[in-house]
Amino acid sequence: MSPRLLSLAFALTVAAGSLFPSTMKSARTVAAKDALECKPGEISACGLPSNVVIDMSQAKVQRTDAEWQKLLTPEQYQVARRQGTERPFQNAYWDHHADGVYFSVCSATPLFDSRDKFESGTGWPSFTKPIEQALVGETTDSSYGMTRTEVHCNVDGAHLGHVFDDGPRDAGGLRYCINSASLKFMPRADYGKWVARKGTAAIDTR
Fold this sequence. Notes:
Elements (H helix, E strand, L loop, with lengths): L2 H17 L45 H7 L2 H8 L18 E5 L5 E4 L3 E2 L7 E2 L8 E6 L6 E6 L5 E6 L10 E4 L4 E5 H11 L8
Antiparallel strand pairs: 1-2, 1-9, 3-4, 4-8, 5-6, 6-7, 7-8
């Protein structure tokens, strides 16, 4: 190829990269860091949706897709049933400090206690542990060129978020990064009445 043609080819390549930057990068070049490591505008591992298959065969609460859409708000449906992710610092519970228990939005299943909630700085509600480990399932999520651990409610299959190993060391070292849209809050006094009425082992449906 002549020098003139080489120059023309190089110019076209640069132009293509400017006009269509997404075509010049692989999926792995859009690196998703943990939220605590991100600079403003960068995508965090918490801020990406999931792409896993949740085993619903053992779930006690099962509904059709149409039924879930009627029961949930559009955002709740997108996050809890479609494995989406809400925006950080723009959700109901990231800065919520009331004393009580967070239930699954898809069933009356108590998942996280406010006593185990901590300020992670990520913009999503974060917990060191679930109330009962058996109620929260884990699935390996290999989407977006990463390996993350997706967490969901074992009772109803609702996608909750992800769990990371950068939590408080004095509390086990885990950080359950959970979407507010997958939760509903019950104050401590009401939770005490709920437990007395249902029993600690009782799982109600919506």
